[in-house]
């Protein structure tokens, strides 16, 4: 079944977060998210561009992503004929970087193709190993340690299976020690978002004492070699996030033993095809993976749920309930998490939820249709 994309509508939505989210690179209070609607034969597929509002996590940001999709990706996708959604990524491979912008379009075509076939997205990508996916939470840097402990207590009580806290120089060893003292047996990990260098190895080594399940991306966003040197000094497994943008990066990281675990983010790697390849490579090398998040709206969240049903997603991901981020989500129903810390996977076609068109219109601040 070849598909031709007749129309792409870009929307920017603006929504405040329920609670600020702070990482080593800054605090986010409001999200500006680009949604991609790809249309063929009257059927719509939806994707989300997962970049931040500023080029601080990686080089991408909302305003640039809009221009990349409008001026470089969409013109190569419109009216082209695809044997399958897996071929969409190649059409924009000539663009350097900007994987999230490219991935938002790629994911929309996967969703479209699943809807045209009448199957759930998880089925269409070859997933379905899990009917319930395991959920963790990512907790940002708080104003105080007591605030952090209170937040962790609430999320543990809600059933989440793993707690991730953000760290940075000045908010690390002492904070983790306090968390570990208060919660001796939770599955706990720390994410530095590239805030350290190899010169901090001794400080990071102190974290070994708190039996974390992993330390996520301690060193530079583009530095696989130094992570290998650090991993050789740590007992705690390193999990790479920012560093892994392509299959080749995953090959290099595994070959150099730069990590024991990989966080796969759909957008960061440019969409489902590359995510599937990285998943398979990691599995063949006994490297467990989990699905990371980028403070997504319900659409990106639903894509992450589909991805998380692949067999090597054996660790709880950062995919959590809509209500942790939004007073009202743009999908219906909202993503809900069970008291056991799981999300049950929808059997409905495509990404498995309805778009709440009324609310979507309400939060849309910019819209452009390309045909
Ligand atoms: O490093 O995983 C990260 C959010 C924004 C940018 C980077 C990261 C994160 C998160 C949040 O940790 C995960 C979520 O969506 O809950
Ligand atoms: Mg991370």
CATH fold naming of the largest domain: TIM Barrel
Q: Order of strands across the biggest sheet?
A: 7-8-9-10-11-12-13
The beta-strand count equals 17
Total count of helical runs of at least 4 residues: 11
Any ligands, ions or cofactors bound here, and which? 2-succinylbenzoate, magnesium ion
β-strand amount: 15-25%
The residue-averaged pLDDT reads: 98
Q: What's the overall geometry?
A: globular
Helix/sheet category: alpha/beta
* Major beta-sheet overview: 7 strands, parallel
Could you name the ranges where pLDDT drops below 50 across 5 or more consecutive residues? none
Terminal-residue CA separation: 21 Å
Helix content: 25-40%
Kindly provide the name of the CATH class of the largest domain.
Alpha Beta
Number of structural units classed as domains: 2
The SSE string, one letter per element, is EEEEHEHHEEHEHEHEHEHEHEHEEEHE
Radius of gyration: 20 Å
What is the annotated CATH architecture of the largest domain?
Alpha-Beta Barrel
User: What is the CATH superfamily classification of the largest domain?
Assistant: Enolase-like C-terminal domain
């Amino acid at each position: 079944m070849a598909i031709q994309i007749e129309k792409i509508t870009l929307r920017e939505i603006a929504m405040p977060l329920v609670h600020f989210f702070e990482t080593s690179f800054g605090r986010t209070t409001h999200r500006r998210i680009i949604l991609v609607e790809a249309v063929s034969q009257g059927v719509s597929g939806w994707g989300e561009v997962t970049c931040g509002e500023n080029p601080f996590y990686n080089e991408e940001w909302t305003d640039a992503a809009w221009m990349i999709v409008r001026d470089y990706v969409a013109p190569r996708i419109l009216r082209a004929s695809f044997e399958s959604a897996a071929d969409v990524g190649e059409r924009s491979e000539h663009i350097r970087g900007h994987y999230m912008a490219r991935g938002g379009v790629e994911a929309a075509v996967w969703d479209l193709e699943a809807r045209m076939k009448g199957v759930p997205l998880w089925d269409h990508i070859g997933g379905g190993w899990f009917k319930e996916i395991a959920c963790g939470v990512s907790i940002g840097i708080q104003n105080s340690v007591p605030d952090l402990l209170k937040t962790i207590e609430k999320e543990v009580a809600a059933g989440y299976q793993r707690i991730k806290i953000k760290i940075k120089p000045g908010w690390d060893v002492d904070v983790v020690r306090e968390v570990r003292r208060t919660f001796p047996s939770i599955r706990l990990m720390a994410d530095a978002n590239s805030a350290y260098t190899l010169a901090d190895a001794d400080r990071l080594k102190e974290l070994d004492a708190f039996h974390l399940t992993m330390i996520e991306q301690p060193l530079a966003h583009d530095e696989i070699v130094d992570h290998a040197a650090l991993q050789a000094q740590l007992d705690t497994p390193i999990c790479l996030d920012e560093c892994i943008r392509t299959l080749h990066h995953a090959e290099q990281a595994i070959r150099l033993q730069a990590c024991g675990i990989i966080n796969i983010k759909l957008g960061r790697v440019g969409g489902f095809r590359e995510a599937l390849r990285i998943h398979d490579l990691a599995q063949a090398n006994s490297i467990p993976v989990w699905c990371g998040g980028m403070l997504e709206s319900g659409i990106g969240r639903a894509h992450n749920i589909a991805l998380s049903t692949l067999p090597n997603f054996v660790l709880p991901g950062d995919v959590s309930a809509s209500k942790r981020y939004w007073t009202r989500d743009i999908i219906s129903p909202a993503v809900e998490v069970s008291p056991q810390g799981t999300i049950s996977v929808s059997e409905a076609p495509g990404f498995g939820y309805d778009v709440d068109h009324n609310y979507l219109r309400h939060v849309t601040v910019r819209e452009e249709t390309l045909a």
